[in-house]
Amino acid sequence: MKANYHTHTKRCHHAIGNDEDYVLAAIAGGFDEIGFSDHTPWKYDSDFVAHMRMKLSAFHEYKQSVLALKEKYKDQISILLGLEAEYYPRYMDWLKQFVHDEHMDYIIFGNHYYRTDEDGIYFGTACSNEAYLDIYAKECIKGMESGLYSYLCHPELFMRAYPRFDRHCERITKEICMCAKHWNIPLEYNLAGLQYNVINGIEEYPHHRFWEIAKDCGCSAIIGVDAHHYEALSDIRYWNQAVSYLDEELHIKRIERLEHFGF
Ligand SMILES: [Zn+2]
Ligand SMILES: [Zn+2]
């Protein structure tokens, strides 16, 4: 079983290609199941317009497109309708109602911003100091405890900003992992991050120390392509690299197919 639940579309303004290109690439890459999980729209109180997510007005067309592809390719691949969503306390009632009303298959938890992106800060920039590491971990935990999300995306996103994986990183990694273990929520091994690491010769996320701690805490891993380009689904080099690391080197429990979707 080869499945990927982390796929973006051009509606988030930083992904490339048509939805069908992603499906064809996934078939070429040998996937049995893919989920589209573009950056969720939010219904903001203010007139804020986000530039890294689909607009609420684009959602209907997104849903129709994914459902049409699901039907068209049903004999070749299973396609699910999802979203990648943050945890914004003041808007969670809205999100819960939205995913229910729209019959979403699942949502995954991308803990990108503190508070909201209207008035908050991107954790991938903010987490250069210990205070924000703690805030990041607390928000991860609150989100996981909400029971809404199928898994936690790029759980060590803080390494995009933090200079090195020190004892503070170890402490918050344990907090995140203990919560994930308690609620049986898989942690994502993110292939967009892996590609970024390899190309730049650095180690941000995924980070081997995070994954060693996750293994020790008894967590389970799930590989997420985090595709912003359809070729990320047909070029399986990073997928194979991740499988061999997780299965043969780390020996962590790996989820190949989501059975429990949260809400
Ligand atoms: Zn993300
Ligand atoms: Zn993503």
List the helices and strands and how they pair.
Layout: E1 3-4, H1 19-28, E2 33-39, H2 59-72, E3 78-85, H3 92-101, E4 106-109, E5 113-114, E6 121-122, H4 123-126, H5 130-145, H6 167-182, E7 187-190, H7 191-200, H8 208-216, E8 220-224, H9 231-234, H10 237-250, E9 253-254
Parallel strand pairs: 1-2, 2-3, 3-4, 7-8, 8-9
Antiparallel strand pairs: 5-6
Helix pairs in contact: 5-6, 6-8
Description:
- By secondary structure, the protein is α/β, with parallel strands linked by helices.
- It has a single domain (3-254), classed as Metal-dependent hydrolases (TIM Barrel), CATH 3.20.20.
- It has ten helices and nine strands.
- It has helices at residues 19-28, 59-72, 92-101, 123-126, 130-145, 167-182, 191-200, 208-216, 231-234, 237-250, and strands at 3-4, 33-39, 78-85, 106-109, 113-114, 121-122, 187-190, 220-224, 253-254.
- The strands form three sheets. It has a four-stranded parallel beta sheet with strand order 1-2-3-4.
- Helix 2 (59-72) links the parallel strand 2 (33-39) and strand 3 (78-85).
- Helix 5 (130-145) runs parallel beside helix 6 (167-182).
- The longest helix is centred in the middle third of the chain and has 16 residues, at 130-145.
- The two termini are 23 Å apart.
- The relative contact order is 0.15.
- One zinc ion binds at residues 84, 110, 112, 153-154.
- The site of one zinc ion has 5 residues, from loops.
Main traits of this protein?
263 residues, alpha/beta, 14% strand, globular, binds zinc ion
